[in-house]
Design goal:
Blueprint (H helix, E strand, L loop, with lengths): L1 H56 L7 H25 L5 H4 L4 H30 L2 H33 L5 H13 L2 H13 L1 H12 L3 H26 L2 H30 L1 H11 L6
Length: 292
């Protein structure tokens, strides 16, 4: 009898330890697949972040670090939302359609190149005009500008004080903070980062959809948490790499030339890699815009 009880207890211990080891192996495989799938699909996004931080490091840039941070997360959350919808309905927009968003960085690159050309022409015109004007006239103009600038600054200060005295009692602190938060999250620069992030991560939907489809709900939650943590690490890597003193000096000197070129290359890469135009040709030929 004791021998039988001993055998039963021993078999139960083997079963429990075996099931625990299987669960540990499954968890390790889950975490490993999350890391591998994220790195494989977001290597190009790291270069995008580097380019955005180069642009933000330039002195007169309207792009801020918070815009990159918020835009990166909003863009990636949109991608995850589309992936979850595609898993639920087992069909969605063809991934090739997202490739047409590659025109967004191309337009930004062309805009940057045009701005550089206009700036160069203005500098050349200023040099020619400065050579034709005398130093006395320049001093007169500077004195007039200084006097007018002081008057304008005084007028602006008076208007700001009046506006603050009028507006301060009407706006509550909570509504003001909420308004500032909405403006910070949905300004033009943040939306630009969102569109670039969404365009560069089109392949993520094609890879994450079958990955989520064969996973349980709690496994999908673990995937999402790991991805969001890795996005934060991605942003930190790009930020601290760009802010190294020698790299920062190069970025500030040559960033305005680097950023448009990288945007152009990025947009062309997105369009070519997504096969959006071959898909469009097949869709027009077969009249099937769902599957191409």
């Amino acid at each position: 009898m004791r021998d039988n009880l001993f055998l039963i207890e021993h078999s139960l211990e083997i079963f429990v330890t075996g099931s625990m080891s299987i669960e540990q192996d499954n968890n390790e495989e889950l975490i490993g697949s999350a890391f591998i799938s994220f790195i494989a699909t977001n290597i190009d996004d790291l270069f995008v972040l580097l380019n955005l931080f180069i642009q933000a490091s330039m002195p007169n840039s309207s792009l801020k670090v918070r815009d990159i941070f918020i835009g990166q997360y909003l863009g990636f959350l949109i991608i995850l939302g589309i992936t979850l919808i595609a898993v639920d309905i087992s069909s969605g927009l063809p991934v090739q359609m997202i490739g047409f968003l590659g025109f967004i960085p191309i337009i930004l690159g062309i805009k940057g190149i045009v701005e550089i050309i206009i700036e160069k022409r203005k500098k050349c015109n200023d040099i020619i005009e400065n050579n034709n004007t005398s130093t006395i006239e320049l001093e007169k103009v500077s004195l007039i500008n200084d006097v007018n600038g002081e008057k304008l600054s005084e007028m602006k200060n008076d208007q700001e004080q009046q506006n603050s005295t009028v507006d301060s009692p009407t706006k509550s602190p909570f509504s003001q903070k909420f308004f500032d938060l909405v403006c910070c999250c949905f300004n033009r620069e943040t939306l630009k980062v969102v569109s670039i992030t969404f365009a560069t991560c089109a392949d993520v939907i094609a890879i994450y959809t079958p990955l989520f489809a064969q996973a349980k709900k709690w496994e999908i939650a673990i995937y999402i948490v790991i991805f969001l943590v890795l996005i934060f690490i991605w942003i930190l890597l790009a930020y601290y790499f760009i802010n190294l003193p020698p790299i920062l000096n190069i970025a500030q000197q040559y960033g305005k030339y680097i950023v448009p070129i990288v945007f152009l290359i990025l947009g062309i890469y997105i369009i070519v890699a997504s096969d959006c135009f071959p898909w469009l040709a097949r869709a027009i030929k077969t009249k099937n815009f769902k599957y191409g």
